[in-house]
Design a protein that fits this description.
Length: 352
Amino acid sequence: MASLEGLIEAWDGEEVVVSFDESAGAWIFICIHSTALGPAGGGTRLKVYGSPAEGLADGMRLAGGMTMKMAAAGIPFGGAKAVLAVRELPDEAARRPLFLRYADTIASLQGTFWTGPDMNTSSSDMDTIAERCSYVFSRSEELGGSGNPGPFTARGVYHGIRASVERIFGSAELDGRSVLVQGVGSVGAPLAGLLAADGATLLITDVDAERARTLADGLGAKAVPPEDAIATECDVYAPCAVGATLREETIPSLGARIVAGSANNQLAEAADAERLREAGVLYAPDYVINAGGVLYGFGREVLGWNAEQIEGALSGIGGSLTGIYEQADATGTTTLAAADELAAARLAQASA
Ligand code: PHE
């Protein structure tokens, strides 16, 4: 793993803001990748990493993905991500001082960076941030925010899965289609519920076996051990947890025809998109299919959308993917290249 300074020197983003919170033993990295389309927006990830540099590298990669996500979704925000790299996940008492300290850093950026929840952070953490500054989405609904975006990210992924299934099988009907949901947290769990309601044959896996089992029992799904996830035969593999599950070593054993899930950075490297294409797998570019959360947050908190407008934007994710699939076929490229082109065109338009 490169050093902190090596990572920062090599990065193609605009700015990294670093601080260390001594009382929590937490490194705080705010990675601002691009402000070309507007203030940089991105979630706050709280996670234990092997080293601070691993946390920074994760934040940088995720921030680049946010730039593409905002551009592809047509949201006038740039891309960023914040990582709070902790030695262990803080308990309730330790959480508040850490988030207040972090909020002061966000406040000092005066609106260059806006945040929202991500892995291991929630609306109540956003409420804490809001005590110090207003540059935050997804506060609790009781406090005037738009609440947990997870179910809306899930709904966007659901529409994306339908569009992908239609592309491969000629009908968007999920009845009888098998879908493996990997990771049943704030997005994977509501996604599993939507799929089950449509009659999909549901397979569920999670690093927390108990969590997988409980949800599977409730939905009439089958629980699968995490180590079997990639190779399990199914129509759709929906990664909804950590990234980089699709790599040179795992792609040959993939048991699904379609990859369509909510995780950020699903591919270890861009070349994996070509590997998937060669294997005959349809890949829904992660930053396109998982934009439901930011669309919801931005739509409700900035544009004042009603339920119908939100659902229109979320079902639009299916339409965007269909367009990307057609473009990829027409030009003989990967679906990722087609999505990148769409996002790049929006970014180029902004800088012109
Ligand atoms: N975790 C969200 C994502 O990756 C970040 C987010 C959600 C930001 C909602 C703002 C509002 O897209």
